[in-house]
Amino acid sequence: MLDIVVPTLNEEANIDQLVTRLKNACPEARLIFVDNCSTDRTLEILEGYGVDIVRHTVNEGYGKSLYDGIIAGTADYIVTIDADLEYPPECIPQLIARLDQCSVVYGSRFAGDTDPAMGAFRIYGNQLISWIFNKLYGQAVSDLYTGVKAFRRSALDGLEFQCSGFVFVVEFAAKLVRSGFRLEEEPVEYTIRRAGRRKMKHVAEASKALSLLLFYRVSRLKIKS
User: Fold this and answer.
1) Range of 170's domain?
2) pLDDT at residue number 217
3) CATH number of the domain that 89 lies in?
4) Which one, 4, 178, 201, 206, has least CB within 10 Å?
5) CA 110 from chain center: how many Å?
6) How far apart are CA 138 and CA 183, in angstroms?
7) Per-residue confidence (pLDDT) for residue 88, from 0 to 100
8) Considering the chain, what is the average pLDDT of its residues?
9) What DSSP line would sit under 32-64, residue for residue?
10) pLDDT tens column, 40-66
11) Burial 6-36 (b: 16+ CB within 10 A, else e)
C-alpha cells in the first residue's frame, strides 16, 4: 500500500499533468492532495479527478500541508512530492523499491551524474545546508531540501512535528535521525518549474534552517548529558 502526499498552493497550471503522470506511474497508490488555501482553479481541477483532498481554509504552510497529508493516509509506505513538476512522478517506483532495504529515501538532485538546471545560489545554498546537517548529524545526504522523498510510516512512530513552514524539512530530517534512522538517497532528474510561481524565499528559509539544525543538535546533547 502506498500513499502519495502532494501539497498544493495555486498550481492550476501543473495539476492536470501531475495527476495524470502520478496515476500512470503508481496506479495502485492513494493520491492525497493537501490544498493550502489556493485562490486559483487548483481545487476545482482536483475535484474533477476524484482524488483525496485535504483543504486548508487559510495558508497553514508547506510543512503543515505535508504533515496533514501524511496523517490523512494509512498506507505502510509514503511518498511526498511537490506539485510543481520539478521532480518527475516517474521516479517514485525507484524510491519505493529502495524501501525494501531501508526506511527513508530522499530523491537527490545532486547524487547523479547530471547537474540540475537551477541557479548557482540555490545549488550552493542547498549544498551548504546539507553539509552542515551532515556534520551535525553524522549523515551523508547531498540534497536535504529535496521535494520528493519516500519513507515507511513506521519510521514516524512516536514523532511529533511542530514546524508548519518550509523549515519542516529540517525538523523532519533531524527527528528521523535522532530516532536512529539513516537518510538514504536515490538520484532523481530535476527540471526547473515551467509554470506557476515558486513559493520559497530562500535566504529567509536558510537562516531558519540553520537555527533549527543547531537547536535540535544542542537539545540532543543536553538530553544525553
Assistant:
1) 2-224
2) 73
3) 3.90.550.10
4) 201
5) 16
6) 10
7) 96
8) 89
9) EEEEE--SSSHHHHHHHHT-EEEEESS---HHH
10) 999 999 999 999 999 999 999 999 999
11) bbbbbbbbbbeebbeebbeebeebbbbbbbb
Cα dihedral 85/87/88/92 (nearest 10): -130
The C-alpha cell of 17 is what? 499533468
Residue 60, phi then psi, degrees to nearest 5: -100, -5
pLDDT in tens, 164-202: 998 899 999 999 999 999 999 999 999 987 765 655 555
Domain count, the chain: 1
Place of cell 538517497: 185
Q: CA 164, CA 176: separation in Å to the nearest integer?
A: 17
pLDDT of residue 122: 74
Rounded CA-CA distance 175/167 in Å is 13
Q: β-pairing, 184-187 with 104-108?
A: parallel
CA 108 distance to own-chain centroid: 11
The residues, ordered by sequence, that sit 6+ positions from 74 with a Cβ below 8 Å of its Cβ are 1, 3
Quote the CA–CA distance of 90 and 94 in Å, as a whole number: 8
- Give yes or no for a contact between 12 and 45, defined as CB atoms under 8 angstroms apart: yes
Other C-beta atoms lying within 10 Å of the C-beta of residue 45:
20
